[in-house]
Amino acid sequence: MQKSDVGNKESGKIWIRKPCPATRDGLIVNIVHTAAEYQPKSLRFLNVAFDSTGDAFIAGDHQGNIYVFDLIGNKFTLVQRTNQASTALAFNLHRKSEFLVALADYSIKCFDTVTKELVSWMSGHESSIFSISVHASGRYAITTSSDTAQLWDLDTFQRKRKLNISQSVGIQKVFFLPFSNTILSCFKDNSIFAWECDALVCKYQLPPPPVESDLKYKVFAVTRDGRILAAGGKSNHLHLWCLETQQLFRIIQLPTKIRSIRHIEFIPDSFDAGSNQILGVLGQDGIMRFINIQNCKLLFDIGTLDEGICTSVISPNGRYITSIMENGSLNVYSVQVLTQELNKPPPPLVKVIEDLSKKTGPGHLKVRVIGGKVQRPRKAKDCKTTTTILRNMMDADLENKENDLPKGLCKKSLQTLLRGYGEYPTKYRMFIWRSLLQLPENYSAFNSLLDKGTHYAFLNIHEKYPIKSRKLLRILQRTMSALAHWSAIFGDTPYLPLLAFPFVKLFQNNQLVCFEVIATLLINWCQHWFEYFPNPPVNILSMIENLLAHHDKELLQHYMNCGVTAQLYAWPLLETVFSEVLTREEWLRVFDSVFSNHPSFLLMIVVAYNICCKAPLLNCNLKDDFEYFFHHRNNLDIMVVIQEAYRLMLCTPVDIHPETMLDDFVPLTKSQYPVFNKYPKFIVNYQTQELERIRNDELEYLKERQAVHEMEAEIRRQKDEDEVWYQKQQLLREAENKRRDILLEEEKKLIEQRDRLLAVKRDLKLKEIQLLNASRKRFLWNQLDQREMELRRLDDEIHRKQLAKNEEIATQEMKEDLNNYRRKIDLEERRFHKAVERNECHSLETQKLVEETLANAEQACIDTDWQIQVLLKRQFDEAERKEHYEEIAKLLRDNRARELDALNALKGLEIKKGKEDEEDPLQSSHSVAALCNRIRRKCFNFDTDDYQQNQDEHFERLQELKAKSPLKLVPSAVLPEGHLNYIPGIDPETHFSLDRKREELEKKEHELMSEIRRLRYKHAQQARQRYRIPPFRQPDDADLLIT
């Protein structure tokens, strides 16, 4: 083991001398990174990632230094300093010199290892990124953190999609399946979903693991063919899922000392067609164990308890394992050394027996393996002759060099094995074929051919070869396109898909091997096939015909008699490589022998097939029968055909033997494929030019035809639209005429209905007016009757009270006369002395009488005002208003007449008083007082107490009338505006406004009342001035009684 220290160097060699890893551990080199002298501690490596070739990897330490280690070129280079720790790396991008690094600040950066410059900077995560998965094409990448996964386009470095999840369900890992467009997302609740990369549509979901298993998945690994998913976690159990059937098909229990699994990864193998069998499992003890998932056997392990492994990465080509150790260093292991014991070929079946007791003499027998067959020298009858074979030492060296194969195999041993068993073991057949053909596995060259895309010659291959399996068709199209990009002639070879299809079907899970096997077949076993292109290889067919003429003249003569040439009995077998006439097992046996012998052996197989089928062929006389025979399977033993081919190889003369005309086997060159130009270039170029011209003409024709079709479609569409438009116009005209007729009829009906409606409205209006008039008249008569009844009641009450007052007055007068008579005597005695007193009393009584008269007049005016208000409030039309005005005018005239009577009475009383004063002052004073009292009572017919009682009774009767009356009269000052406008029994459409009339009446009423007050005040002032009455004082009943 060698140890390499990166130190502070930016570049240098990984190892000083060529490493020779020990068989027991397979360790090539241990890489450490020590800091500067003032920093004695070493820097720890955190992440490792291989490139697509598997011959170089990048590694980042916890200070942000990123190195590229080239294991083939034996050098390392410091490509970037990010100044922060990296959390994930990816080095298998589409542009080989670029790599992705996820940093501790949750960002992703893309750097170039050649220019050491920043290519792009991507951000969008909110937590640490622990995984970067790159698509097989290198154009897309998925970055995964604990809360989200994001899909990036590495051409534009733009985010395409983002997977968001709830906080309760975390993400374990999201990654691409190898060589597939499927994305696998694994969550912490053991749910696993498969998504289509392009449309991001869920393809399927794996069922939950068994209930009895408490395993929580944390680590995952998938085989190269994408068929098997391995999942593990904190347990010693491994679950193997079949992604094709979506079922759990196996649970592997690891040793009990493994309590949890930290990392798992499959070892790629170039000979298992992507169905990897060896799985590396890293346990919690730091030891990575490699087991076979088929037989569940422990094969080997790396790491120790003292030097444990943190994580490991296996190269895509399966040659190296790079592990990050617990001490922060890197260990690089050789898978070939670790699996050396496992890949040992089986022991040879033929052994060399040598008799050591006898070195000379005729009885000496020696058996050796020479030339791929067991040769025994024949003993003569008399044992006297001895055959000696002398060989040139140079020829022996060349033969040994030819027989030496990679991987430690021997071609002669394989030929001996094949002759003994007739075929290679199925388990090791692909390995043996790849060893025999010495495939270089040029990943870069093959990917460059694939990157050129689908060749135009195979764009419509599905139309000519309708294969049921879309996957198989896609692989066939890619392989044919790669061959056409490799050499131009293969794009024009019509039978190439027929020749390549059996190999495509056999190696469908490893397209690189498929391409190189076909390419090796074309270079070696298809020699001189294209010299007469585009015609069949006449020279090869001539060789076959010469062989058939030498070994079976009868059959060839039969062919000639039937007009059948080699193009009919040999070329169909060659162009399909026997895939049409043999089963899968028979075909594999045939090509076991073809690949193990000289390229001329394929022609011998064709001749042997014809000779073995001689009996049925001699019975055929028609070309159609021969054509059918060589395009369909026939009943024959393929081992007989192979043995016959071996016989022909030995018995054919040198002059016609194809071995002398065909070159020996030449493998494909490494790193780049050889140039294939063994064909008439002018024909191919001319044909290519013609095809290109025809294609261009066809494209132009298609464009013109498309334009014509579009024009015709446009004309038809326009014609259809015009026809539809005319039909619509015709329908519209017809509909318009119908609608016009309907409208005319409806209009006539509407006019008739309007006439009828107007007539009905007129009748209703007349009836309404009549009803309103009748109702108004009835209401007016009712109101008139109520007023008359109220007036009659008031008159009766007044008359009754007048009678009662008259009686009371008469009684009071009698009492007063008696009192006056009684006082008369006393007064006469003191007449002289009391003259002045009587004069004063006379003046006081006169004043009281005047005041009472004025008070009664005022009360009468108040009563008159109240009656006027009641009458005015009860008027609702002009007729009632006029009647009320007449009544009010009548009352005013009566009032004025009474006032005039009162004034006349006062004047008469004054005149009479003057006369009585002249006669008898005392008598006159008493008579004047009595006369004034009688006049007052006669004019007003009630005293002050009766007035108050009469007022109360009138008010009570008014309230009763208001309660009984259907029309509730409310003072206009109290009624709201809506009530003033609304009068029951009167139509709201009446053409006169009661509000306006009411306002006019109220205004006139106020003016009238003001005029009455003014006149009353004027008369009172005149009376006071005339009789010298003191200011007004309300008289009481006691004064009146005394008076």
UniProtKB/TrEMBL annotation:
GO MF assignments: molecular adaptor activity
Keyword Repeat belongs to the record: yes
UniProt keyword annotations, A-Z: Cell projection, Cilium biogenesis/degradation, Coiled coil, Cytoplasm, Cytoskeleton, Repeat, WD repeat
Top-rank lineage group of the source organism: Eukaryota
UniProt-listed Pfam families: RabGAP-TBC, WD40
Statement: the UniProt record of this protein carries the keyword Disulfide bond: no
Cellular component per GO, a single term: centriolar satellite
Domain Rab-GAP TBC positions: 423-598
GO BP terms in the entry: cilium assembly
PROSITE patterns, sorted: TBC_RABGAP
Coiled coil start-end: 701-748, 784-838
Primary residence: cytoplasm
Protein localization: Cytoplasm, Cytoskeleton, Cilium basal body; Cytoplasm, Cytoskeleton, Microtubule organizing center, Centrosome, Centriolar satellite
Function statement: Molecular adapter which is involved in cilium biogenesis. Part of a functional complex including OFD1 a centriolar protein involved in cilium assembly. Could regulate the cAMP-dependent phosphorylation of OFD1, and its subsequent ubiquitination by PJA2 which ultimately leads to its proteasomal degradation.
Protein name: TBC1 domain family member 31
Annotated organism of origin: Phascolarctos cinereus (Koala)
